[in-house]
Amino acid sequence: MIGEFTPRELIAAFFMLAGSVFFVGAAVGMMRLPDFYARIHASGNAETMGTLLAMFGLIIYEGPTVNAAKMVFVFLFVFLCNPIGSHILSKAAFKTGHPVWTLNQQQVVDENVYNEPVHNEPEKEVLADMEAHELEAELEKARAREQELLEALKKARDQQLENKEEIKTEAKETEAK
Amino acid sequence: MDTVLFILFCSINSVVGVMLQRLFQGPTVWDRMNALGVIGAHIIMAIIVLDFMDNGHGDMFLDIAISYAMLGFIGSVIIAKFLGGKKI
Questions:
Q1: DSSP state at residue A2
Q2: Measured between CB atoms, which of A12, A55, A88 is closest to B80?
Q3: Ordered alpha helix ranges (H), A63-110
Q4: Which residues of A64-73 are buried (b: 16+ CB within 10 A; e: fewer)?
């Protein structure tokens, strides 16, 4: 089977197969990774590397022609612009507050780079609203407790009155005897 | 050589299939944008490989690939800036 290939075709086939390995790696990473940032990392890196390798193999296979020159242009354009596109997309996601997946669910804030750690922090009005809601809930709980205590007090007084009446009736009975 | 080109074409299309799944069920808009950009970049490769599989070596395919690369990149950057608002 290898005898069918000329040496140039062998080198080209090697580069194309390496590129297809990177493409399949991009597909697997896209299926398995948990987060947008991890997925864009997998797709962006493996896509750029696979495109470079496969394009290099195709250029070698084509030989020195005008079409190869055009393919070099596509090669350079993809090499420059694919990482820039991925970077702009992930930067936009990070700056608009898309949460970063971590093992401990902790927030990731990169203050050294961006100087505005704004994402996922509730604003002051929201905080005041939350505090007001908590206080209202506490007030309702206290009212319910007050009601319970008043009912208990009423019951205790009723019991006291009944006891007094029983004592009086007992005293009357003893006097009668 | 046709076998190698066919393997390359199949691997490119496997990525496009996975990206289509991510494009339709992606949880956030960023996943969908990423899938669109990656599909564009892989279709450039698919066009060039189709040029070689065709045996005709039409120059048209390569010109289409160049213009497709430029349009895909510019579109993805513009939509990312639109989604990012003033911050990006």
A1: G
A2: A88
A3: 66-95
A4: eeebbebbee
Q: Which residue of B has its CA nearest to A31?
A: B18
Chain segment A80-133, per-residue pLDDT in tens: 988 998 888 888 888 887 777 777 766 666 554 544 444 555 566 677 788 888
Query: Does any CB of chain B come closer than 8 Å to the CB of residue A33?
Result: no
Task: Yes or no: say if A76 and A125 are a contact pair by the CB < 8 Å rule.
Answer: no
Name every residue whose Cβ is closer than 8 Å to that of residue B35 and which is 6 or more positions away in sequence. B19, B20, B22, B23, B26
Taking only the tens of pLDDT, chain B with its 88 residues reads: 788 888 999 999 998 998 898 899 878 888 888 898 889 888 988 888 888 887 656 678 888 888 888 888 888 888 888 887 776 6
User: A42: which 2 tokens?
Assistant: 């997998």
Chain B 35-64, residues with CB within 8 Å of chain A CB atoms: 37-38, 41-42, 44-45, 48-49, 52, 57, 59, 62-63
Smallest CA-to-CA distance from A9 within A61, A63, A59, A68 is with: A61
Contact at CB, A30 and B62, closer than 8 angstroms? no
Cβ(B80)–Cβ(A92) under 8 Å? yes
- Residues A58, B49 contacting (CB under 8 angstroms): yes
Surface of A (92-121) touching B: CB under 8 A: 92-93, 95-96, 98
- B52 CB-near residues (< 8 Å, 6+ apart): A58, A61, A62, B5
Whether A77 and chain B come into contact, CB under 8 Å, resolves to yes
